[in-house]
Design brief:
Layout: E1 3-8, H1 12-22, E2 28-34, H2 37-47, E3 51-54, H3 63-68, E4 75-80, H4 84-87, E5 96-99, H5 104-125, E6 143-148, E7 151-156, E8 160-166, E9 169-174, E10 180-181, H6 185-191, E11 197-199, E12 204-207, E13 211-216, E14 222-226, E15 231-234, H7 236-246
Parallel strand pairs: 1-2, 1-3, 3-4, 4-5
Antiparallel strand pairs: 6-7, 8-9, 8-12, 9-10, 11-12, 13-14, 14-15
Length: 248
């Protein structure tokens, strides 16, 4: 099946060269190009590509900055002049990094990774890897891009166990990481599926599938123990809702 791709790079020659290399891969259709991050966001949100070839260093916003502004994440292959050792500073679970000038064999390897990943995802979940980009509800199979300082991650929502309010920011708990993102808890709550993410109290949204233990708490509330060991209080009002949802 043909996959739609967008190339985002401020160097016109780099875009042209990559397009030429992709002619040997008829399964990839380049539907648009962008020369900077803002143009890239507009093209991605308007055209919903399956794949983005993304430069990191661009005037204005970097490729990483751009990703933090997307609502839903296409598959990403970085094309960069960065030294590969510098790239190890980033914990981004991108499909691949292609160092410029891009070698045809490395490009073929990266595209094979995409094919392998999509085969695994479709057999595991029967859901295509990248839903159409639109503002609205985020499903548990959607990926979000999280950047905290110089560290970056692609995270599936199903892997996030907890969001905690910190002023205008939210702390995101996944694996051993707890980076901050510039989003309020209220803004997150509007976008998250309430069947999976539950607003326990003023400061916390929990992933219901990550709850290991539920205990009664004072004043008619509840105490939830989350998979990472965190203990979260459910307010009395929310405890009523929680019991209805969980049929307790």
């Amino acid at each position: 099946m043909t996959k739609k791709a967008i190339i985002i790079d401020d160097e016109r020659l780099a875009r042209t060269e990559l397009k030429k290399l992709l002619q040997d891969h008829p399964e990839i259709e380049v539907i648009a190009e962008a020369a900077n991050a803002n143009e890239g966001i507009e093209k991605i949100e308007g055209m919903a590509p399956d794949l983005v070839f993304l430069d990191i260093q661009m005037p204005g916003k970097t490729g990483f900055d751009m990703l933090t502004e997307l609502d839903r994440m296409p598959h990403v292959i970085f094309t960069t002049a960065y030294d590969e050792y510098a790239l190890k500073a980033f914990e981004v679970n991108a499909l691949d990094y292609l160092l410029k000038p891009v070698e045809p064999r490395r490009l073929a390897d990266a595209l094979q990774k995409l094919e392998n990943l999509e085969e695994r995802e479709s057999s595991a979940t029967a859901v295509p890897g990248f839903p159409t980009v639109q503002r609205g509800m985020l499903g548990e199979n959607d990926q979000v891009f999280v950047k905290d300082g110089e560290r970056c991650w692609f995270v599936k929502l199903s892997e996030i166990r907890l969001f905690e309010s910190v002023g205008n920011y939210a702390k995101v708990f996944f694996s051993t990481h707890k980076p901050l993102i510039l989003k309020s808890l209220n803004a997150l709550e509007e976008r998250l599926d309430e069947k999976i993410f539950f607003r326990a109290n003023r400061k916390h949204i929990v992933n219901l599938r990550m709850i290991e233990k539920v205990e009664p708490y004072f004043n008619g509330g509840l105490l939830l123990e989350i998979r990472g060991g965190e203990k979260i209080e459910v307010s009395r009002r929310q405890a009523v809702k929680f019991k209805e949802m969980m049929s307790l």
